[in-house]
């Protein structure tokens, strides 16, 4: 955790914060078909975000992500609590297209009181959870850049933009 001022606390950990010169994730290991894909603008900045509908910081992070331009976002649903997987499964089963799933994810995150139907369909949620555990991803949101850099936790927009530009999230 990093405190930027008495009013701003950033709950995020980067490789630099852990004292690593670089912490690289093998991007090609991701099964992108198991994610909800969104392309905004020219889509030139590519990230994967491990998220869940019932995570408070994920909801806050989605508001930040909505302000980022020229980005491709692959959202992997990984409910960290197995008893809360119903919302992630319902989001995936909300439709056959990324647009329909993204709309369901947004609606679920914006309206926490929303009645989530018990829906079943073939979905990658359990496989995403297993993959995340194999990769030591135990925190949502976790963001991975196409270059293999990882940041775990919520980032405000300014810090995310720095990170996306290749600088450290907390670089001056």
Overview of this protein structure:
- The chain is an alpha+beta fold and about 170 residues long.
- The protein has one domain: Glutaredoxin (3-Layer(aba) Sandwich), CATH 3.40.30.10.
- It has five helices and eight strands; from the N terminus they run βββββαβαααββα.
- The chain has a six-stranded mixed beta sheet.
- Helix 2 packs antiparallel against helix 3 (about 100-110).
- Mean pLDDT is about 85; it is low at about 1-10 and about 15-20.
Counted beta strands: 8
Distance between the termini: 17 Å
> Could you estimate the helical fraction of the residues in percent?
25-40%
The geometry reads as globular
* Helix vs. strand class: alpha+beta
The helix tally amounts to 5
Strands of the widest sheet, in order across it, are: 3-8-7-5-6-4
Radius of gyration: 16 Å
Give a summary of the structure in a few sentences:
The chain is of the alpha+beta class. Helix content is 28%, strand content 22%.
Search tags:
single chain; 172 residues; alpha+beta; Glutaredoxin; six-stranded mixed beta sheet; two-stranded antiparallel ribbon; 8 strands; 28% helix; globular; disordered N terminus
């Amino acid at each position: 955790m990093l405190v930027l001022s008495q009013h701003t606390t950033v709950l995020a950990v980067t490789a630099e914060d852990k004292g690593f010169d670089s912490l690289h994730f093998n991007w090609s290991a991701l099964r992108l078909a198991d994610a909800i894909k969104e392309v905004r603008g020219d889509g030139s900045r590519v990230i994967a975000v491990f998220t869940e509908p019932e995570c408070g910081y994920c909801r806050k992070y989605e508001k930040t992500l909505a302000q980022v331009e020229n980005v491709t976002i692959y959202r992997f649903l990984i409910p960290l609590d197995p008893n809360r997987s119903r919302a992630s499964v319902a989001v995936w089963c909300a439709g056959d297209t990324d647009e329909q799933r993204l709309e369901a994810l947004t609606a679920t995150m914006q309206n926490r009181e929303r009645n989530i139907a018990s829906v079943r369909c073939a979905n990658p949620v359990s496989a995403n959870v297993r993959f995340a555990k194999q990769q030591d991803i135990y925190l949502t949101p976790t963001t991975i850049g196409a270059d293999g850099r990882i940041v775990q936790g919520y980032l405000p927009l300014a810090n995310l933009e720095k990170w996306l530009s290749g600088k450290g999230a907390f670089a001056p």
